[in-house]
Amino acid sequence: MTDHTETFTGEAPISFANRLIGSDSFNDLFRQGMALVEETASYLDGPGREASRTLSRAGSLVYATESMRLTTRLMQLASWLLLQRAVNEGEMTAAQAGQEKNKVNLASLSTATSGPGWEEIPLELKDLITASVHLQKRVQQLDGAMSEKEIMRPANANPVNQQLDRLAAAFGG
Hints:
Blueprint: H1 16-21, H2 24-45, H3 47-52, H4 57-88, H5 94-101, H6 123-147, H7 159-170
Helix pairs in contact: 2-4, 2-6, 4-5, 4-6
């Protein structure tokens, strides 16, 4: 029988966020984020540029403002994703990534979803903005979970651990 007592020490909870970062789920999130960056660049350099030429003055101002917010948001998210991938692939340590992560701003950039000119904005741009905000929320949640201080509990705070300790003492383990 394998000795699993180290697993049940209760010293620290399992960090699911840190496990997620090394998983296929993170790889999917990374691919989605990078695809959104590419899709946005393609749109803004092509159809978006053409569409922006037909907007009124107010629409042009909103388009310019929102496209800058969108690209800024995506560059911050891409930086965070690239840092996490570098750690996963052993290209940098978690400590190095932590220092670099301090330069990344995951705070929400506001997006004007109403007001003069907003209704003129092409649906494609609105969809890209919505997708980027959704990605930002996912990354913020993951980053927050990774940044939480681990809760340290006394080794015997868990009743199961107390019973395991009693059994080990009774049978000389």
